[in-house]
Structures are given as C-alpha cells and as structure tokens.
Amino acid sequence: xxxxxxxxxxxxxxxxxxxxxxxxxxxxxxxxxxxxxxxxxxxxxxxxxxxxxxxxxxxxxxxxxxxxxxxxxxxxxxxxxxxxxxxxxxxxxxxxxxxxxxxxxxxxxxxxxxxxxxxxxxxxxxxxxxxxxxxxxxxxxxxxxxxxxxxxxxxxxxxxxxxxxxxxxxxxxxxxxxxxxxxxxxxxxxxxxxxxxxxxxxxxxxxxxxxxxxxxxxxxxxxxxxxxxxxxxxxxxxxxxxxxxxxxxxxxxxxxxxxxxxxxxxxxxxxxxxxxxxxxxxxxxxxxxxxxxxxxxxxxxxxxxxxxxxxxxxxxxxxxxxxxxxxxxxxxxxxxxxxxxxxxxxxxxxxx
Length: 352
Prior knowledge:
By secondary structure, the protein is mainly beta. The protein has one domain (35-278, 293-346). The protein is 5% helix and 18% strand. The protein has three helices and 15 strands. The protein has helices at 55-58, 169-176, 294-297; strands at 15-17, 26-29, 32-33, 38-42, 50-53, 59-60, 66-72, 98-105, 112-115, 135-139, 144-149, 181-183, 215-216, 220-221, 322-327. Strand 13 (215-216) and strand 14 form a beta hairpin.
C-alpha cells in the first residue's frame, strides 16, 4: 500500500504564538489542511516547546479523528566520576520507554498539550547526570494523559550498584487507563571502583525492552542487544578523553524494525540503534544522510554512558524523545502501514 505521507519536523503550520496568559507554552497557528492519509511528528524537546492545540481548528483532518500514536521518552544522562584520579566511575543512564496506542479517537472540541522529553544532561566531574524527560500527549479538557512514555533514569553517582529500572509503562497504562502497549528502556551499566564507567541503556522497542549498558565488575560485563526493535546498550567507557561521550542505541518512531545488535565485547562504543531500517533517508543531524553519526545512532531515547574513573570529563548525555501521530485506513503500530513513503515527497516545517 502506498501512502502520500507528510513529514512535519516540529509543528503544524508556519508560525507559533504563545497563548495569552500561558507561560512556557507555544500554541499552533496558521493550520494546514492535512491529507486524509499522513502523519505529524516532533523531535524538538525542552520546556519552551510544549504545543497546545484544538484538533478542529489546528488539525484539519477532514473529519477523521482516529489516529495511531507512538511516544518515546528521553534517555537519562550518565554520571561523572568521583575523582579525576582513580575514583568511582559514573553509572550509565537508562534508555527511554516507548508507548503506542492504535485507533485512538481525539475529541475535536478538546484542547491538547504535546511535549517531547529532553535528554538528561551528562554529569560533570563529581556530579550525577540528569533524568530523561517524559514524552506525552495530554488532554487539557479532561485533565488526563492520552499517551505517556517515561524518560530514563539518570546514572548512579558514587555507586557500584545496579541502576534502578524506569517507572513501569505497564503501571502507567493501568494508572491512567489509556491502554496501548509499552516497554521499558534498558538499564545503564553500573559504575566501578577504579575502572570503567557504565554504558548507557538502549531505548525501548515496540515489542520488548532496550538493551542494558556494559560495565566492569571483576571483569568486563558486556552490553546486551535490544529486543522487540529496541536499541542495544552501550559498551562500558574506559577512556580519559573528555570528548568521548557514548550512549545507548535509540529507537525510531516509524514502526518496529530490527533489534539494536549486540555491540560486541570490550569498551568505548555507542549502542546500536533499533528499528533503524524502517527509515533510512531522512536527514536527522547536521544535514548529512551519507553516514550515521554517533548522535543519530542514539536517537531517540538512548541513555548516556558514565565517565571513566580517571576522567575529568562529563558523562554522556541522554538523547531526546519523539512522538509521532499517523492517520489513514489500516495504519497501526507496530508494523501495519506505519513507515514513511519518501518517494512521494515530504513537507518539512522547521521549528522556529
């Protein structure tokens, strides 16, 4: 089946205006009449990029309000070392969770708020990293979440214990009664005394959890592959180079694809991305489609790796989340008519 999809990188329309009385929130203006079959998706993250809209005035879908949505939480940041000389290395941040819902009815008279989670910051020397932000669509009229993917936990600081799991997507679906399917990001690798920093966890997949980051115990413990289309964990970090900020593999919002592969034994490498084969020719980073940079491999939701025990550099940052909304006949995550058809062209609206 061929679809004439539209790629909106950030917003609907060509301008954003802050609603009167709102703080830190941007509203959508100058709506476009969207095709009966298409998509909208966001990868811009941060407190200044919450989008508020009414479907009947901002999303002109020709009276079709049933959509399928996937949300990916942001990855947690890796923590710094306790010392630049033989300290306790930083733990890796967890990958972000993934949640999708199919055949969801949006109420055209309700007001909605959409937010993409910001990646957790990498911790400086003697500092912990930051927790990854949640990604969600929230019904402001009913005061309820429509979809919610939790961000990854930050890496542990000054600790050789395993990182805690992310907040459970299953619990979220039960608590907020919004149904759907969800999985958790992989665990960041633990720190070690006088040895390698923990690798970042991989982003969750559509049918399984992300891979765990590698770490050093009595010897190197390898990172693991992702499952269900999720990203793999990153290898443990054993380098004094402050610029080497590794992280777990991300997951794309274009439906389930291949698992993020086992990154191999040893240290000092990013995790492999999951579901990357569902889309290969969109420009994601610095205008380049010829190769996959480290930053691209970690999008979306990869956790940052921790700093090595002798490094004064900061831990790796987690990568931002993403949210994608699709509509049209028989379009359901994880695999039914959910990929993009780039041969028919795309319209990209950059976030101002």
